[in-house]
Amino acid sequence: MPRIFDFGGREVERSVTVASLRALKGGGRHAAQVTAETAEEAGAAEAAGIEMVVCRAANVSRVREGSRRVFVTAALGFADVVTSDEILRTAFSAVTAGADAVITGRGLDTVRMLANEQIPVMGHLGFVPRKSTWVGSIRA
Predict the structure, then answer these.
(1) Could you state, in chain order, the average pLDDT of each consecutive group of 10 residues for the chain (140 residues)?
(2) Range of the domain at 112
(3) Residue 45: which CATH number?
(4) Between the CA of residue 134 and those of 42, 60, 129, 130, what are the distances in Å?
(5) Can you give the pTM of this predicted structure?
(6) Does 93 reside within a domain?
(7) Phi, psi of 29 (to 5 degrees)
(8) Integer Cα distance of 118 and 112 in angstroms
(9) Is 140 domain-assigned?
């Protein structure tokens, strides 16, 4: 299990890292990710061999109480953080609390802004119910 320093400066072990996730691309191997909002859910995910969890940014500390090893992605709530300053502040708070990355349903400018600050960021592909008006129906 890789040993790294997290964004809070703590030496930690992670089941996967950003580098190992990037190395998976095109290799046929996948990593599993589930939602965990509590310490109990994060602990259960780790015990089940799940490599990654996603949680709301406000719940990162709680999730880290349940697992120090799973890769945690903090969701930046679409309506919770609106301005660029709020997005950056929430993202920095999440990664210093123990998140390994953030996820956003916002546009490329937001992704670039976060990446320019060296914050690992995921976009969202697939079913986004709140944006169904853009595609004209509820579909993936």
Answers:
(1) 91 94 89 96 97 97 97 92 95 98 92 96 75 79
(2) 3-135
(3) 3.20.20.60
(4) 34, 31, 10, 9
(5) 0.89
(6) yes
(7) -95, 150
(8) 10
(9) no
